[in-house]
Specification:
The structure is a single chain. With about 350 residues, the protein is an alpha/beta fold. The chain has twelve helices and twelve strands. Strands 2-1-3-4-5-11 form a six-stranded parallel β-sheet, with helices on both faces. Helix 3 packs across helix 11, helix 4 runs parallel beside helix 5 and helix 8 crosses helix 9.
Length: about 350
Amino acid sequence: MMIQRRSRTLAVACLLAATATLAASGCSKSETSDSANADSSQGAQAAETPESSSGSGCSLQAYGAPKLDLKDAVVGFSQSEKEANPFRIAETQSIKDEAKKVGVKKLLTTNAQSQLSKQISDIQDMLSQGAQFLIVAPLNSDGLEPALKAAAAKKVPVLTIDRKLNSTACKDYVAFLGSDFVEQGKRAADAMIKSTGGKGKVAILLGSSGNNVTTDRTKGFVDQLKAKAPDMEIVAQQTGEFARDKGQQVMEQLIQSKPDITAVYAENDEMGLGAVTALKAAGKKPGKDVKVVSVDGTRNAVQAIVNGDYNAVIESNPRFGPLAFATAQKFYGGEEIPEDVIITDRAYDEANAKESLGGAF
């Protein structure tokens, strides 16, 4: 959904200023051997201005949770997908690094392996182990109600990151920290228009169904093309489930069924990189014969721009650790947390990819 922008109170302004200052990237990993050399200072995550956050504020008192010192607390982190995807690797590492930096007494971590039932049981298990605050990267926007009810019954606050829940803020969860996914889709469309001159036949590799990321990135892209490049035709929309191998398989099929495709919009880098592999195997030149734009900002995708196989990447920064724990500290300090805290995302293209490679994850 589109994020409605409104001005916030002074307390919220202070929160976002503080989180922007505190944001410092975690030490992330990627599939490339030199990823450890990435310049994490370039990849710091920060909230946008108060006007870019929305929804009524949620305070500790309004949520009905007990006061807590994180240094004497058990915190749980529920990851949604297996850590084969660089986004998930960087996200989990950032949470671990910041928990250690803040001095959290004990951090529990789980991985749902892309299974909703497992994420529900993971959260319930962490509550049984004494978790007093939860950070959750939801697998889907719906379906976590049993876990949320279990947390509410124990008066354990839930902070969601990277995917938004279709639930009630300040009742089922405290707040959502993440990107404006519709805006990401729009920016991807703008990058595609720039790369193609606003003409051609586009295939969209959709993310997994059931979450707002896929819905919003699709909406932003499709609406922007319709408004700004009516000569660009979307000839296929097929899910690649945010996975590289699936993205490659889908692209192989599309090359056969839609051989006149001239552009590919992948809703994450992994699918885009899979599409590049398929295009090369078919004797096509990705980045030239077929323009490629995706969303995430992984080191491999940014390197593909440098190599000439890619045209643009819109970042979706996974380094939530500093912002998540800063938000938690403000929450327990009595300040109101806006329903949606929107982070800043950069963009990579041929003009800046080489110099910006160090900030990719």
